[in-house]
From TrEMBL:
Organism of origin: Cyphellophora attinorum
InterPro entries, per database record: Cyt_P450, Cyt_P450_CS, Cyt_P450_sf
Swiss-Prot/TrEMBL keywords: Heme, Iron, Metal-binding, Monooxygenase, Oxidoreductase
GO molecular function: heme binding; iron ion binding; monooxygenase activity; oxidoreductase activity, acting on paired donors, with incorporation or reduction of molecular oxygen
Name of the molecule in the record: Cytochrome P450
């Protein structure tokens, strides 16, 4: 689960480490994905358009959700409702 408190209360070294890992899904070093910036642009456009067109809410706000990291990160128990604006 994403906890904003760990970013707010993080030491300078912890913040450096977290900032280095945020882009890990695109690989690292000399073999980092060359299309990562295009992907970020596409995601920002899609997400902003979804938020512009729909009201988004949690289907079950009382349930806890978790992130399962295998080859891809997956959220379990994070169901949302999209209502056209």
């Amino acid at each position: 689960m994403f906890k904003v408190k760990c970013w707010i209360d993080a030491s300078e070294q912890q913040t450096k480490t977290m900032n280095a890992l945020w882009e890990l899904s695109f690989g690292g070093g000399a073999r980092k994905c060359i299309g990562r910036w295009i992907s970020w642009i596409e995601m920002s456009k899609v997400i902003s358009e979804l938020l512009r067109r729909y009201t988004v809410s949690l289907a079950h706000p009382d349930l806890e959700w978790k992130v399962v990291s295998r080859f891809f990160a997956q959220q379990k128990g994070l169901n949302v409702n999209y209502v056209p604006r």
